[in-house]
Structure formats: C-alpha cells, structure tokens
Amino acid sequence: MNYSRFLTATSLARKPSPIRSTGENQMDIISRAPKTLISLAPGSPNPNTFPFKSAAFTVENGKTIQLEDALIKTALQYSPSYGIPELLSWLKQLQIKLHNPPTVYYPPNQGQMDLCITSGCQDGLCKAFEMLINPGDTILVNEPLFPGTLYAMKPLGANILNVPSDEHGIIPDGLKKILSQWKPEDSKDPTKKTPKFLYTVPNGNNPTGYSLTGDRKKEIYELARKYDFLIIEDDPYYFLQFSKFSIPTFLSMDVDGRVIRADSFSKILSSGLRVGFMTGPKSLIERIVLHTQVSSLHPCTLSQLMISQLLDQWGEEGFLAHVDRTIDFYKNQRDLVLAAADKWLSGLAEWHVPKAGMFLWIKVKGISDTKELIEKKAIEREVLLVPGNSFFVDASAPTSFFRASFSLVTPAQMDTAFQRLAQLIKECL
Ligand code: PMP
Fold it and tell me: How many whole angstroms from 265 Cα to the centroid of ligand 1?
C-alpha cells in the first residue's frame, strides 16, 4: 500500500519531537542500565514533590488495586506517547486473540499491525481525520452517524457522501453504485477525488443500534480493495454485542493493511478514564502518535496504569468474564426497553431490534419532523430524548426519527417515559 497518498500535508510534515523521542529512548536505557548510570537528561518533575502518596481502588470482586511507592510515582509521571508498554503489549495480545489480523505477520513498512493508546477513541479518530482529510477530499459514511465524528470531519472540509444503509448496516450494492462514478484506476489520480476512506460503526451504531453483517463486511472490504480506499472501523460497542463477537471484524479480514480500527474502554471499564486504542498499519499509527507527541504528549498515565493493573489482576479470562456480565446487563436493558416500546408505541412508531450497544432508534409514524416534539413538547412532559436530525450531515433537514438510550434508566422509568411519549404523539397527530 502507498500510504503517503492518503496523508494530508500537515500529517506528512510531522516529524518526531526530538525531546519526546530522545526521552523515550533514554527511559529505555535507564530501565536496562546498571545503578551506576547518572541521568541528568529527563525534563520530568521530581515525583517526591507531588502531594499524592498512594491510591487504592476497590474492584467489584472485592480485591484492590494498590498504587504506592514506585507505582504511584510512575502513575503520576510523564509516559510514552504510544501508551505505557505493559498496557500496549496486553492490548496487542488481545487484538491478536480477538481479530488475528493477517498484518500481524507483515514487515513493518508493509502494513504491519501496530497499536497506540489514545485518550478515548474519540481522540484517536479525531487525529486520524486530521491525518487523512484535505479540504475537498471525498469521504464515505452511513447516516445517521455519531455527531462526534461528523463534527470532527466537517470543519476539515471533507466532501461527505452518504452510503445507503439499513438495519444490517451499509448496503454493498448502494456502495457499489456510489463508487461506479469512478474507475478503479482513478485512485492513482488525486484530481479525481476518489474516496479516501469509508467510516462506519459496525456494531450497535450510535444512534441506530444497528450492526453490519459479516457477509456485507466481506463485500465492502473487496470494494475497498478495488477502489483503493481505507476503512475506519469505529467499534466502541464491540464489547456490547449481544451475540458475543460472532461477526468477523474488518480488522480480521485486512489482508492489505487498509483498516484503522478504533476500540474503547469507555463502555466496558470507564468512560471518564478516557482510554481507547487505535489498531492499524504501522505507517498510519505512527502518524497518530506523532500528533499525540505534540498535543497531549501521551494519554493519562494514571488511567492507563489503573487499567493495566486491573487487566493483569483479571487476566484475559477475567476481562472476558466482565465483558460477558456487561453484555448480560445491556441485553436485559434492551429487552426491557423493547417491551416498553411494544406496550406503548406499537402502531404509533417503528423500530428495529438493536444487536449491540445502548440505543433504540425510533421512527414516529405520521410526523415528518420530530424536532419540536422531542426538543420542546417531550421536555415539557419530562422526557428527554435526542432528536434524529442531530445525526445527519444536513442537521436542518426534517426527520421522523429520535434516539432513546436504554443504558441508565430503570424498567419503571422506561415504561413511564414511553407512556408519556405515546400520549404526546397521539395529541400531535
Ligand atoms: N464513536 C462512537 C460511535 C461513539 O458512540 C463514541 C462515544 N459516544 C465514541 C466514538 C467516543 O468514544 P470514547 O469515549 O472512547 O472517546
């Protein structure tokens, strides 16, 4: 793959920050050097002056994670831009176990799988967009889409094309039709503006809860090969799949090194810790890390160390057992919200059963624009929802959809909310 043709001038111009690279090399030397080595090199503050002396976190199994002595000093100190080495190697093993991408075995400059930790996957995605989008570049997405992505792409001047999709995700024939305006060889000519990448949320999409099927993924990947575009697989709801990872990921089929995958601990360990990770070809992951070197320097060391200690304590089996328990919780919530919707909204609205995640995407029958209903009238009846137009490139266009999240509410609250909403819809018809 010729990665440089995808990169923006800003990304191409990024060089390793000398102070960061030297610092990381020196940390490595110090960790392996005899005690006689004297280092006057690091610009790190002396952690003995920090007021925090220890921390203990109680985990649900009753065990604790104790950060004291050298560990608390490490937790409070600067750390490598890629992420702390112990968490990085844990996550690389996890990715190999879950996705086993062919690229694991490729040479470094030929698409070899690499991974970096970011401050939530939003941070990684935002950096990936800055790396890839020049004003006027063509980008493929499937609406409705996560506003965090949309509002990161829009100011970069991307020409955003919507690929038709349904409750099973992107429709390959719809994608083929869009691509047919180009010839495969056009990707070699920058003036033809062939799509640079396809961005999609393959599991439990935010806001729809829809998931892309494995067969469709295979077809889409083949189209990406034919027209030579990258795939950004934004998968923060991967660990909330009610069918428990039965669908192969784009990363797992990535024979070329054209997939950038965004993972997140936000839905499974903590959203406030802000830890996510990006997996993809080394040449592109390196560019994301160069960006981190000059923005936040690195993701939060304390957050990474907390997670790394927890994962070490649990082991892979313990982590996956926690994932299973979390899936059971959300699956139960999903079933309860569907029961409440069936009870109150049947005949008034339509929806599909979410296969993952925490959202129900509801279409109100007979109301072409739900904006006022959701933003004004529902609030007056004390029900908060998100109007559908927030998830479209053209937010001013009317839509009869809205998003209901079933993550935080009790069964009684779901029931009352939909009862109030049903009454309101009837009054508006
Ligand atoms: N992508 C999607 C589709 C999301 O729904 C979210 C979170 N709402 C993110 C990315 C950002 O996740 P994180 O907390 O890891 O930054």
Answer: 10
Tens digit of pLDDT for each residue in 58-91?
Answer: 999 889 999 999 999 999 999 999 999 999 999 9
Mean pLDDT across 274-278: 98
pLDDT, residue 244, reads: 84
Ligand 1 in reach of 234 Cβ (< 6 A): yes
**For range 316-332, the mean pLDDT:** 97
Looking from the CA of 71 toward its CB, the CA atoms found within 13 Å total 14
Residue to mutate (ligand 1; options 145, 200, 206; most atoms within 8 A of CB): 206
Q: Is the pLDDT of residue 32 over 80?
A: no
Residue 410 CB less than 6 A away from ligand 1:
no
Mean pLDDT of the region 131-145: 97
Ligand 1 lined by 151 (C-beta under 6 Å): no
pLDDT of residue 33: 75
pLDDT tens digits for range 393-420: 999 999 999 999 999 999 999 999 999 9
Q: Which amino acid is at 256?
A: D
User: What is the reported pTM?
Assistant: 0.96
The residue written with tokens 């839509």 in the block is: 399
Q: Kindly report the average pLDDT of the chain as a whole number.
A: 95
Establish whether residue 146 lines the binding site of ligand 1, counting it when its CB lies within 6 angstroms of any ligand atom: yes
Query: What is the whole-number distance in angstroms between the Cα of residue 292 and the centre of ligand 1?
Result: 18
